[in-house]
Amino acid sequence: MIHPALPHSNGIAVSLKELLSYQKNKPAKASQGMGGRTLAGPYRSLIKGRGMEFDEVRHYQPGDDVRSIDWRVTARTGSTHTKVFKEEKERPVFILVDLSDSMTFGSTLLYKSVQAAHLAALLAWQAKQRNDRVGAVLFNQAEHLELKPKARTTGVLQLLHGLCSLQQQQPSIFQQEDTKLVAHSHEQFTAELTRLRRLAHTGSQIHLISDFASLTEQGEKQLALMQRHNQVSAWQIEDPLEISLPKSAKGQLKIRSFFGESLLNLSQQRQTYADAAQAKRDQLSHRLKRRAISHHTISAGLPLLEQM
After folding, report:
1. With CB atoms 3.0 to 4.6 Å apart as the test, which of 21, 38, 165, 288 could cross-link to 293 if both were Cys?
2. How does the average pLDDT of the chain come out, rounded?
3. Pairing of β 294-299 and β 231-238
4. Which domain covers residue 57, as residue numbers?
């Protein structure tokens, strides 16, 4: 699974050297907004709550927003004064990274969990270059890490070490009964979203990195609560085999999943497979859109920087 664009990666277990390499990438300009490149989207100027902080009070000038008039100072001095705000210099950035069983899969280049770690590293380094503080919630099937926001390189490094630690612990799939494993995954994902909501300060930038296979209605409610006072972006990690079957594939394929075993006729069901995959993606996009959360897709079958 080694790729020339990823000389330090075996595609299965992420290394600290891989994640450190994203430090050299410059952040996208906020002015690019959602119309710019994929990774520029989450950095558009959408400030909520403590995303803006009070700077000073000065005399009112033509063109100032009347909603910012400081009536107490105006009454005391007898002349109109207005409050001036500035963008927080150290905005909290929280990154949730799903490294659970459904992310431990890769058919082409990388495991989805490895690509998730790469994306988290890139977003963290860009946040650091913007002088933002970086915190995170990381979890696999067995445990989680809660990292409070820290400034400068300290915040990024605690994230990178946590990613390597949890991603390299490859959980053994199917150790439990399939139905129990599915229920545990759904409950865990909701619990991690709840944990992140309580951790994130008002006005934070929040990145959710997952395949969202375990997103339930209860999880959506946590997303809605998060979005009220923060800017939330969802990054869906996909594997090429989840989107379409290889054109060269023929015959029947035995599939084992959480729901049991079955046979897939590769020739006859290729289009049905692709249509079902697209419908699933569209459904997730709709669920996130109704919560006012931006939705991005990242393939685990291509180097991350080629998808910018």
Report:
1. 288
2. 84
3. parallel
4. 49-87
In this prediction, residue 35 carries a pLDDT of 35
Cα 304 to Cα 308: distance, rounded to the nearest angstrom = 7
Are residues 83 and 145 located together in one domain of the fold?
A: no
Same domain, 63 and 161: no
Q: Is 3 within a domain?
A: no
Q: Band of the pLDDT at 64, cuts 50, 70, 90?
A: confident
Q: For the chain, give me the number of helices (H) and strands (E)?
A: 8, 10
The pairing of beta strand 144-150 with beta strand 205-210: unpaired
Give the whole-angstrom CA distance, residue 33 versus residue 289.
17
User: Does residue 252 share a domain with residue 292?
Assistant: yes
The rounded distance, in Å, linking the Cα atoms of 247 and 226 is 41
Sign of CA dihedral 62, 63, 66, 71: negative
Tens digit of each residue's pLDDT (9 = 90 or more) over 11-55 = 899 999 999 999 987 655 443 333 334 444 443 333 343 456 677
Q: How much is the average pLDDT of 298-306? A: 95
